[in-house]
Input
Amino acid sequence: MSKKLSVDYIVVDVTSAYNALIGQTTLNRFPAVVSTPHLCMKFSTMEGIATIKGDQKLACKCYNESLKFKRQPAEQKGDPATWSLYVGGSSNKSGNRAGVILESNQGTRIELSLRFEFPTSNNQVEYEALLAGLKLAKEVGAERLMVFSDLQVITSQINSTYQPKDPIIKKYLDEAREQLTHFAEGEVRHIAQDPMPELMPSPN
Output
């Protein structure tokens, strides 16, 4: 049993235990159900349910190998790069879309376009983009991070000047604050304009 699906990947030169990451949008297109502890994915085909199983021993070996890559001491590698994370999103009748730009002062630039297949608000879309960007920044090993968002209510919430009443938004806020603790230096700022309208995927 098989099923073909065209997927665009972003290639990043970083030390990681993963060869590839498949996002929720792609999994929804199969549709697929994933169990990380069992290294197993199931999805429907014309012939029935197909199952893909990973090799537990090989996965452990790859993970252990990735841990061997030690970071150089600070006196050898110099100052760590400063990364800027730009997030923006919108939720309307044409769809729920967002964009993420992560770039360093050393010339690295990563762009992500996100589309959500579930009902959501502007605040939720912005938080989804923010969380995706923070996880990406953590994956590339960023230590200094500046986050920029055009939605002032989000930046105010993260900077503790405005507390949300919506329990769903409160969960997003708690997760974003937890993710920010992974960086040695992290700051969230508001910008007046959407930083990436060209990255917003088409609703079609």
About this structure: Residues 74-199 form a domain with the Nucleotidyltransferase; domain 5 fold (CATH 3.30.420.10). The chain has a mean pLDDT of 78. Strands lie at 32-35, 40-45, 48-53, 82-92, 95-104, 109-116, 144-149, 185-190.
